[in-house]
Amino acid sequence: MRHFLLIIFIFVIQISFACTCINVKPLSETEFNGYNLVIKGKIISIDSTDGAKKILISVEQVYKGTKNQSEVLIVTSLDNNSCGINPHTGETWLIYSLSMAQYNYYTDVCTKSKNLDIRKVGLEAKMLGAELKFLKKKKH
What we know:
alpha+beta; five-stranded mixed barrel; 26% helix
């Protein structure tokens, strides 16, 4: 019984510290303007040292922000419980990010950043179509 209670306690703590955010509204002009960088790009490498996940992205399309860089370094938290995104090398992502003092850009799961791999888009496909249409008007 004691082990069962310990397992329940650990599970409850895990849930209470898990990242939660609701981001189901369509992208608005106001929300778009709140980001410093919006890009589409392929994940080149991921470095999970120094307490953060540093993601190097080959820029394929700039919708907002710097247009002279072919690669951008984005930082996120190490895991999903801390709201970090979970990309893998070779995937194509749509990244919404904010400026950060220590690094150039930061993103997390509470932004609209998402994997564009059609197998992972799933139920977001309809909303993603509208989002990409919105962004197409914004591209540099």
